[in-house]
Automatic annotation (TrEMBL):
<comment type="subunit">
    <text>Monomer.</text>
</comment>
<dbReference type="InterPro" id="IPR005225">
    <property type="entry name" value="Small_GTP-bd"/>
</dbReference>
<comment type="similarity">
    <text>Belongs to the TRAFAC class TrmE-Era-EngA-EngB-Septin-like GTPase superfamily. Era GTPase family.</text>
</comment>
<keyword id="KW-0547">Nucleotide-binding</keyword>
<protein>
    <recommendedName>
        <fullName>GTPase Era</fullName>
    </recommendedName>
</protein>
<feature type="region of interest" description="G1">
    <location>
        <begin position="28"/>
        <end position="35"/>
    </location>
</feature>
<dbReference type="InterPro" id="IPR006073">
    <property type="entry name" value="GTP-bd"/>
</dbReference>
<keyword id="KW-0694">RNA-binding</keyword>
<dbReference type="GO" id="GO:0003924">
    <property type="term" value="F:GTPase activity"/>
</dbReference>
<keyword id="KW-0699">rRNA-binding</keyword>
<keyword id="KW-0690">Ribosome biogenesis</keyword>
<keyword id="KW-0472">Membrane</keyword>
<dbReference type="GO" id="GO:0000028">
    <property type="term" value="P:ribosomal small subunit assembly"/>
</dbReference>
<dbReference type="GO" id="GO:0043024">
    <property type="term" value="F:ribosomal small subunit binding"/>
</dbReference>
<feature type="domain" description="KH type-2">
    <location>
        <begin position="212"/>
        <end position="296"/>
    </location>
</feature>
<keyword id="KW-1003">Cell membrane</keyword>
<dbReference type="GO" id="GO:0005525">
    <property type="term" value="F:GTP binding"/>
</dbReference>
Length: 311
């Protein structure tokens, strides 16, 4: 399979001067770097990241506007194949519904690796929508890069008719500019969907809950993230000051103790890091209060999930 830098003729007939605007889905198995790629494309951290699977639980829209195009990226949850909870069914619905309504799909895999979970996502890719293959985490491959990538890309080309192949590293932002150049001709001509300075369609309230959840992920053990979520009880804005009152919802008393930590040390760390990230994103001071509530079975309650903002 060879790398291409131009789409097929039907996507490039119109003059380059025409303004283009379209939606681009970012899909892949958990932990291939979809959210890191989204943040690199938008130029701002709007999608939370961690080394753990199931970090992204919602469709997150990120927007990048240039002089000649508006790119509307949709970061989807990693498709779940190993757990059958109501929460995971909700995450999978978010993936499949997104694929049916976009102009272009970025199928993200880890450079040099293709496994059963990647294969499951590949089976969901639309046949009538252009799909680009993004081989991410290229920075993890050593000096024998060509020896690894050439057979890998040849194999991938046999599995699906990808329009383009982009080996890259979202973490180091290598080839981000090239990726924009490749994406643009696939977007339809049209007026922008959002204001030129918009970065996301999500509210500050939603972003605050995601930031807290990211810190919970990073400061707790492997089990807890799958049985916890964050609810913003109140979000107040007064000038450049935000007051955020949040509840961390967990399944068991033991999980509550994990978040609190010794003499409250872990909860304090989570709170401090979340507040600092909010202040950077919102460009103002943040007052943050957090509580922890135990609610057994929340992740397998369809009605409850909808109340917490899941689809």
């Amino acid at each position: 399979m060879t790398e291409s830098t131009h789409p097929q003729q039907d996507a490039a007939d119109t003059p380059a001067a025409a303004f283009r605007c379209g939606t681009v889905a970012i899909v892949g198995r958990p932990n291939v770097g979809k959210s890191t790629l989204m943040n690199a494309l938008v130029g701002q951290k709007i999608s939370i990241t961690s080394r753990k699977a199931q970090t992204t639980r919602h469709r997150i829209v990120g927007i990048q506007t240039t002089d000649d195009a508006q790119y509307v990226f949709v970061d989807t949850p990693g498709f779940q194949t190993r757990h059958a909870s109501a929460l995971n069914r909700s995450l999978n619905r978010a993936v499949t519904s997104t694929l049916s309504s976009v102009d272009l799909v970025l199928f993200v895999v880890e450079a040099g690796y293709y496994g059963a979970d990647d294969e499951k996502v590949l089976s969901l890719l639309p046949k009538n929508t252009p799909v680009l293959l993004v081989a991410n985490k290229l920075d993890r491959i050593g000096e024998n890069r060509s020896e690894v990538m050439m057979p890998f890309l040849e194999k991938m080309g046999q599995l699906f008719p990808f329009r383009e192949v982009v080996p890259m590293s979202a973490k180091t932002r290598d080839h981000i500019a090239r990726l924009f150049d490749i994406i643009r001709p696939y977007l339809p001509e049209g007026e922008p969907m959002y204001d030129a300075d918009a970065m996301t369609d999500r509210s500050e309230r939603f972003l605050a809950s995601e930031i807290i959840r990211e810190k919970v992920f990073r400061w707790t053990g492997d089990e807890l993230p799958y049985t916890s979520t964050v609810i913003i009880d109140k979000f107040e804005t007064e000038g450049r000051l935000r007051r955020v009152f949040a509840t961390i919802l967990v399944e068991r008393d033991a999980h509550k103790a994990m978040i609190i930590g010794n003499k409250g040390s872990k909860l304090k760390q989570i709170s401090t890091e979340a507040r600092l990230d909010m202040e950077k994103l919102f460009d103002g001071k943040v007052y943050l209060e957090m509580w922890i509530k135990v609610k057994s079975g929340w992740a397998d309650n369809e009605a409850g999930l909808r109340a917490y903002g899941y689809e």
